[in-house]
Structure formats: C-alpha cells, structure tokens
C-alpha cells in the first residue's frame, strides 16, 4: 500500500505524491522561544520527527525545515498585544535576543534528550527579515496588501479562499476580530499585519520601505519555507491550534504572491490534555519537560507520546507514564536478550511483522498500531527463545535487525547495541541535574542571606562549566549551553 497522509485541507486521507519524485520538502512550525519547552511541544516535534524518519526509511530524500520564532509573535496571537519575547525580556530585565538565545538552547537540549533529530535547516525569523520584506513588497505591489501609518496589512478580501484550511467563513473571521479592539486603520477586521511599525522603545526593529518596524508573525513561515523548499511545499506541519489564524494567513499570503498552491499536504497534531482539559500555561497545568525529565527517562516520554496517534489528543497522567515505562522496558528487555543469548538451531521469520509494521506506518503514520505490532513481535521472539532449540544465529540477527530498524531507527524508542551506554548517559544526566539543583538551592540561600558575592560566584562558576542560569519571576531557570 502506498503511503496515505490525512490532509487537513481536504479533510481526508490522500496518497502521498511529492512535487519531485523521491524528494520531500517538509516544513514544521517551530517554537516561539520565550520559555522552556513543555509536553505539548514534545507531542508535536516527536510526532513530526517520526514522520521524517519514516519518509527516509521509505527511501525519500527529506529536507526538513523547522523555524525558530524569535520576533513578531504577539501576545494575543493576532495583531495586538506585546511581542512575547520582548515581554519576557522586560519581565526578566534583559535583552530580547538574550531571551531568544537562552530558550532556543533550552529547546534543543530538551529535543535532543527526547531523541528528536535536528532539522536539516533551522532558520530564525530575525535572520530572514530581508526575505520577509521582499515578500511583503511583492504583496503590496500586487495590491494584496496595503500600507497605513507605517503598518502593512494583507487584504483578506483580495484572496477569496481565505480560511479554506480552518473552514472559517468570512463572517466567522469578522467576529474573531472583535475579541480585541480592531485597529480602525484596517480596511477589514480580518486583515492581518505583515509589518508592524515599531513603537518608541521597541528594541527588535529593522528599516523597511514602510519605516522602522518588525515583521508580523505569519509572514516568516511563508518567506522561509519558500526560500528553502520552493513555492510549493510537500508537507507543512504544526499544531491544530495553528490552523487559524496562522496557517490560513500563510496560505493567503503565499498563494497571493505566487499564484500556485502553497502546500500539498497539511498535517496537524492534536493537543495534550490533563484529565481531559487542554494543557496550557494560562490554566497552570502545563508540564515543563525539564521538570518531567528529573523524574522520568525522556525515552519513556517519547514512547508515551507515540502510543497516541499524532491526530489524537494525548492525556497526561502519572499512571499513563508508569504504564509507558513498563511497556518500553519489555521491548528493551527483548533487545537485550537477543544481544546476550547463545545461538541455537530454531528459525524465526520476521517478514510478516515487517509487512504489518509498514502497513501501519503507511496508514497516516499510525504509531499506536506500529507499537502494538512491536509487542506482538517481542512476544513471538521471546516464545521462540524459550524453546529448547532456541534461535539460530541468523534468526537472532534478523530479529535484532527488525527491532533496530523499526523500534530504533524509525520510532526512536529502543537503542541498538549501545543501549546500555544510552541508559548510563541518561543516568549521568540526571545526576548532573541533581547536582545543579543543589548548587542553585545554595545560591538561593545565599541570596536570602544577602551574600550576593557567593550567589554571583556560584552563577559564574556554573557558566564556566557550561550551565547558564537565569533569574525569572517564576524562579531560577537554567540551561546547558549546547550548540544550536
């Protein structure tokens, strides 16, 4: 069966056919870097990591682009409010670029621990302002956008298909504009900002044909995806919450500029819930990955995520994490047993399991079904090993290769022969985290005692060791200074 992908635009599964045979251009909306990553981020990026892995396993050459939003994402996700990064910088009494750099490093540190492979290209919004200005200039020149008082807005009435992804009608879009006070300078309440005039004191700003300002949130993804993947992208991924307004706006501005379809297959992952309630910072029920990793092996978190289909909600609970830990341990034990067992004479054929696993992944990346097949495989292998004749050397190698390929290379949940060293590495990391926590507790105590010299010395020595410490309103935050 050919690979089938559920296309959010057509609301149906479609046979996957990239623009260029054998080559896939894939773009996934990356994080806005103003805080540490949470479980919702993990759900998205683990899911799309497996999409990229399966495409490569299927023989495609994949160019995976995932952006970093480090400017322009306003606090109400529309055209009003404060830049999220600038706001965090104000709260932490520092520079917006320091905030962006710190939390970008933190994000990649967490993704590395989850086994999420780095994208081929990770462009930043601030690093592609010229490309965004060029796209805006093109839209203004074709009358799809207009300039008012140094701001540039896209005219939704110039693009009749606006809202075709989310399914929102023009009237619904009009009503959504009333949840905040709509700028009266807009021609239509649903028009969205491509360029914002920088107010006095705004730090992150650039010169443009329309004056000093900064790009709107939506324009960065269009400019960067088309720069690196062409005018039509094969796969564009993101969270369901991004359908409107972000992805609807991307479609409008991109297709208005090129006259061509922007994306062939739209993929959207579902949300993380806690007790059936959407996880979010505003609800104070979000789970910070760094806190979660102190108690739980990141590979257990990855396994937990993949037991839910990417389009299904993922409900977090301690009981679910414990169950995932036990399930992952069974697969890891089977891999270790194959590594340590002595060859016998029995035979084992993994062909049927390979076919079943392939069919599951080709059916819109059905990881829960794929994992159930891994458990069936593990049970059959262990039964064969329990027999008096055991398994021959060739059968052991075949079974191990199956797990290394599908549980390891594709799903990223079971390591190959270096599994033991992987666990040792994670144990070392957890020991490091506990040591850092002890030092930070000592620093907090020093600050309470007004021994600021000792407090600064602990911070500086940690920085020398590659641990960057920040004091925030929520408490002390730290991140390893890793390469991005």
TrEMBL record:
The gene is cysS. Binds 1 zinc ion per subunit. ATP binds at residue 281. It is found in: Cytoplasm. It catalyses: tRNA(Cys) + L-cysteine + ATP = L-cysteinyl-tRNA(Cys) + AMP + diphosphate. PANTHER family: CYSTEINE--TRNA LIGASE, CYTOPLASMIC, CYSTEINYL-TRNA SYNTHETASE. It comes from Chlorobium limicola (strain DSM 245 / NBRC 103803 / 6330). It is an enzyme of class 6 (ligase). A motif ('HIGH' region) lies at residues 31-41. Its main location: cytoplasm. The lineage of its organism: Bacteria, Pseudomonadati, Chlorobiota, Chlorobiia, Chlorobiales. This is Cysteine--tRNA ligase.
